[in-house]
Amino acid sequence: MKKFVSSIPFISKKSSFGGDKSQHGHVDRSGDDGSYKKNFTYTKNTCALSWWEPICLLEEGSISDIHLVRRRERFVNVKYKDKRDVMDLAKRQRGSKTKDAVKSEELYVLKSIMKDHIGNEQVLDEMRSEILTMSKLSHPNICRIIEAYERRRHIYLVMEFCSGGNLAGRIPMTEIKAAHVTAKILSVVKYLHDNGVAHRDIKLENIMFDSKETIKLIDFGLANAYLNDDFKNMTEKVGTLYSMAPEVLNESYDQRCDLWSVGVVTYLLLSGIQPFWGPKKSMPWAERRLEMIARIKRCEYASMNTYAWENISGKAKSFVKSLLKLNPDDRPSPQEALNSEWIRTMADSDISEHSSCDVQVDLKPVLRNRLVQILSTKLSESEILGFLAYLENNDEEGDGLVSMSDLFRCLNEVSEGMEGLSKEDVRNILHDVDSTGETFDETMKLNYIDLMVDVLVGKGRNLVEAFAAALDAKSDESRMISVPALRTIFDEIFPLEMSEDLWDDLCLKSDNETMVNTSNVLESVTVSIARHHKRTIHSN
């Protein structure tokens, strides 16, 4: 078995992740398509904006932002104090005309990660190792990381731009198309496992398409590298519930959890239905979630005898069943799955003759980000989760999708029971979203679970900013604040349940009259908020 991290020749000997802008002599254009060579560089003490020009904001989260960027013709000295202005300018871009004017092969994605939101130095070291592991991955169906940069407050990743959206917007699809897509995913899984990496979060949202409709697996944030000949037993309960293997829920598993997730994805590609969404819509979400977990642990997926499976072959059904086995020992290896009769039979078919499928179109990035921004500001955390449950209860098809018209209809229906949202607010949201300059069809559908997760993450960012402002207002010139004053800010800024969790993380007592450093408190609370919302996201 290969070991990715054992030898990394592109790292400077002077620094663990070192170098300066001179390293970029190794990154030049090659080939007719203008793409960059695969020489990965990790540059320290240089802002990525000095080499990459932001075009527009694609996603905004509590831990990181994602911008569409293109390579600068020459190095530009962007001072740290100017970074916010550069990013804000890109954020204000309405993007569609700008993006259309740039050749697709010149576009990349810049992920800006705030180090203060990650945790201690040990966690940062683990992230650096993950980045280096990712940089060694070389497979046509893996989203490639081009460069990485690190400064005092940020880590920047430059990656391929997948402009074709994700699989969540393309289900269900024809059997021949599903087989070809599944074969590509299995090829990636085989490559990862052969090289000592488990992805641990294979799902529709993490399988993207580039401008040439090539499948790209993304998001290796939960990937785990096991660097010995014996597969390491993992215990962290990570991933996304609907595609999570039963042994992951039981907190004792190995790389074969990825095969279960491929089975869930294939089930969805063929039927458009999540296999473990069995409970009745009238059941409260908390109870439904527990029932869903129980069904996963029992391997009790929805029947394949319904109308959604009427035109699906027996070979396809047998293939899915072979992956959704409770005992990992009973699942095929990636190579065995690739050699299955269904995959081999479909691989011999001409996909161009069977390319039609019911494509559900998701929102464009700027329009989607505006919707997320408004909802994360207007709704409380409990209202976000309540609205998610309401959408699920109204999801008659059980496919996790909602049209724009139904989304705003549901917002109207629940607004009377929300403190921060009125019917007038809903009309204003619709007007604000429409004013982004990106037109949308009211019948277009989007994955509402994915949308509400983005809203919840955005809520975390808003809370951090409000907390930081309150600390600045209440602290003295030395950036110190008393514990009782800090407790008052907690009670004013955070919802009750979250306030108690975050306060417990600080390990302080309200009657303690000592002074604490606001910078340290902000760092700790920021990390705790991110963890709180991660727990909330994974549990819902």
SSE order and pairing:
Blueprint: E1 41-44, E2 52-60, E3 64-71, H1 80-92, H2 96-100, E4 107-114, H3 121-136, E5 145-150, E6 154-160, H4 175-194, E7 197-198, E8 207-209, E9 215-217, E10 224-225, H5 246-249, H6 257-271, H7 285-298, H8 314-323, H9 334-338, H10 341-347, H11 365-378, H12 381-393, E11 401-403, H13 404-414, H14 423-434, E12 445-447, H15 448-474, E13 480-482, H16 483-493, H17 496-506, E14 515-517, H18 518-539
Parallel strand pairs: 1-5
Antiparallel strand pairs: 2-3, 3-4, 4-6, 5-6, 7-10, 8-9, 11-12, 13-14
Helix pairs in contact: 4-6, 4-10, 6-8, 11-14, 11-15, 12-15, 15-16, 15-18, 17-18
Characteristics:
6-stranded mixed beta sheet; Phosphorylase Kinase, domain 1; globular; transferase; 18 helices; Recoverin, domain 1; 12% strand; 14 strands; 540 residues; alpha+beta; Transferase(Phosphotransferase), domain 1; two-stranded antiparallel ribbon; kinase
Briefly summarize what is shown:
With 540 residues, this protein is α+β, with helices and mostly antiparallel strands. The chain is 43% helix and 12% strand. It has a six-stranded mixed beta sheet, sandwiched between helices.
The CATH superfamily of the largest domain turns out to be: Transferase(Phosphotransferase) domain 1
Sketch the major β-sheet. 6 strands, mixed
CATH class of the largest domain: Mainly Alpha
The low-confidence parts are 1-37, 94-101, 351-361
Indicate the percent of residues in helices: 40-55%
Number of helices: 18
Bin the strand percentage.
5-15%
User: Over all CA atoms, what is the radius of gyration?
Assistant: 24 Å
Mean pLDDT score, rounded?
Answer: 75
Record field, number of beta strands: 14
Write down the CATH topology of the largest domain: Transferase(Phosphotransferase), domain 1
Query: What's the N-to-C terminus distance?
Result: 36 Å
Shape: globular
Helix/strand/pairing class, anyone? Answer: alpha+beta
Identify the CATH architecture of the largest domain. Answer: Orthogonal Bundle
